[in-house]
Design goal:
- By secondary structure, the protein is of the alpha/beta class.
- The protein is built from eleven helices and eight strands.
- The strands form two sheets. The chain has a six-stranded mixed beta sheet, with helices on both faces. A two-stranded parallel sheet has the order 1-2.
- Helix 10 (214-230) links the parallel strand 6 and strand 7 (233-239).
- It starts with a helix and ends in a 21-residue tail after the last helix.
C-alpha cells in the first residue's frame, strides 16, 4: 500500500480498508492480525472491525511494544486530523464550514457529471456485440437477479432499468428460490427472441464471496438451457463482481459494470441501445469456469 499508493502514485489522502469482517479475511486471519497488519501495510482507517473498542485496545497495546507500528499509527493519526481540519471538524462537528462542504458534495451537479463520465469510461463489453435493433423494438424480456436483499440503491437501479429499457415483461428475484420457482420464472417469459438479465452482485458481510445464491444460479442455468430449446438469445449485464463472467460462457453477450449506481446503470443501458460506446477495459483476469451456468 505504501509503496504503490504513496511512493509511486503520490496519493496523500486517507487509505481505508475494506470490511474487516469479510468471510475471506475471517477464515484466514485472527482478529488481531486484521487490526495490526493493515496498519503496518499503510492503511489509515480500519473499516468495521468486529469490536471497535477491542480493536483500539489491541492496536494501542501492540504499538506500545513496537516502535515501527507506533510510528505508523502516529502518521495515520496525523492524516486523519488533517482531513478533519480541512472541512472544519477541528472546530466543531457541526461547524458551518463542514456543513457547507458536505452540502456542496451532495448537491453540486458537477459531481454527477463526473460520476456519469466515470461510469461511461468503466463499463466493459466483455463478450459479443449488439445489433442496433436488438433492444430498440422492445421485443425482449427483462430479468433482474440480486444476491443482496433489501437494498434501496439496487431497487432504484432496477427501477431505472425498467424505465429506460422497457421490455415485454420484467421480473425481479432477490432471494433464494426453489427449483419450481426457477422453472416458473423461465416459462413466464413472453419474448421468443431475447431476454436481458441484469445481475446485481454485492458482497454480503460474512459470506466471503459475491456470487448468486444457489436458487438464483438455477434460474441462470434454466435460462441458458431454454435458449438452446427455443433459440431465445440471453444477454447478461453484470453489475458488481466481474468474476461472475467466468460462468457466462453460454451468453450471447456479456457486459460488466463494477457497481450498482444509477450512473453505471445509465451507461449500461445506453450501451445496449447503441447510444454510447463502451471503452472500459477488464481490470482482472477471468478464467472461464468448467461449471458454467
Amino acid at each position: 500500500v505504501t509503496g504503490l499508493l504513496r511512493d509511486e502514485i503520490g496519493f496523500q489522502g486517507l487509505i481505508v480498508t475494506d470490511d474487516l469482517r469479510m468471510g475471506a479475511l475471517a477464515a484466514g486471519y485472527s482478529a488481531r492480525d486484521r487490526v495490526i497488519e493493515p496498519i503496518l501495510a499503510g492503511a489509515d482507517v480500519l473499516l468495521t472491525p468486529e469490536d471497535p473498542v477491542e480493536a483500539i485496545e489491541t492496536l494501542h497495546l501492540a504499538a506500545s511494544r513496537d516502535r515501527a507500528l507506533e510510528d505508523r499509527v502516529r502518521a495515520s493519526a496525523r492524516r486523519v486530523l488533517v482531513a478533519k481540519a480541512s472541512i472544519g471538524l477541528h472546530k466543531s462537528r457541526d461547524s458551518d464550514e463542514s456543513t457547507e462542504v458536505f452540502d456542496v458534495l451532495m448537491g453540486d451537479p458537477h459531481g454527477q457529471s463526473i460520476a456519469d463520465a466515470m461510469a461511461r469510461a468503466s463499463v466493459t463489453q466483455y463478450r459479443g456485440q449488439y445489433d442496433e435493433e436488438d433492444f430498440s423494438s422492445g421485443d425482449f424480456d427483462l430479468v433482474h437477479i440480486s444476491n443482496f436483499t433489501r437494498s434501496a440503491s439496487i431497487a432504484t437501479a432496477m427501477d431505472s432499468v425498467d424505465a429506460w429499457l422497457p421490455g415485454l415483461t420484467s421480473a425481479r428475484f432477490t432471494a433464494e428460490l426453489s427449483d419450481e420457482q426457477a422453472e416458473r420464472a423461465v416459462t413466464s417469459l413472453k419474448s421468443e427472441r431475447a431476454v436481458v438479465v441484469f445481475v446485481y452482485l454485492r458482497l454480503a458481510s460474512g459470506r466471503g464471496e459475491a456470487g448468486l445464491l444457489p436458487g438464483q444460479q438455477r434460474i441462470m442455468t434454466r435460462l441458458f438451457d431454454s435458449s438452446l430449446e427455443s433459440g431465445r438469445e440471453v444477454h447478461v449485464v453484470v453489475l458488481g463482481n466481474p468474476y461472475a463472467a467466468a460462468k457466462l460462457a453460454r451468453a450471447r453477450t456479456v457486459m460488466l459494470g463494477y457497481d450498482q449506481t444509477v450512473a453505471t446503470v445509465r451507461a449500461a443501458v445506453d450501451g445496449l441501445l447503441g447510444k454510447a460506446e463502451l471503452p472500459g477495459a477488464l481490470p482482472v483476469t477471468i478464467t472461464e469456469a468448467s461449471d458454467a451456468w
